[in-house]
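for ur thesis appendix - Universal stress protein family protein. copy paste whatever u need, i formatted it the way the template wanted (i think)
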Amino acid sequence: MTGRAGRVVVGVSGSLASLAALRRGLAEARATGRPLLAVMAWEPPEGEALYRARPESSWAGLWAEDAARRLDRALDDAFGGLPPEVRIERRVLRGTPGTVLCAVASGAADLLLVGAARSSRSSMGVHRRPVQRAVLAGAVCDLVIIGGPRLLPREARLLRRCRRRDVRLTARREHG
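the 3d part is after this line
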């Protein structure tokens, strides 16, 4: 371990690409001795402008709790439990993901990792990825954009429908 200063900051959404970014962030944290900071940003479903017109703190609390549950689920999906050898911090923050990630990873010694879905069409670029565009424009630290796995349309549908229990049973049958 080199013990480099700063943190490894990972933007988490629960997507396959963000799970890949979490795994890469864990490897970076292990290699450098830095803590891993998993960040889930959330906004009111209808947007901040409409929420300000009719604010309701109880709804905001429910949305924050939902974001915290999604962050915990993503960490469990990525690691199968928190690894003891790396200090992992969790933050659930209100705001647009790109802005929140740039604000959290504000130190020059930080490392920011963001997952980005792989595009099957060449016409889709950065303009369709607001988080990627925001961190590319606003990050003051080193930035790594991690591509998610390439999946066929049927594979993506199957993964959305399957449960963790189904995957574990299949893995046991193949090895047993």
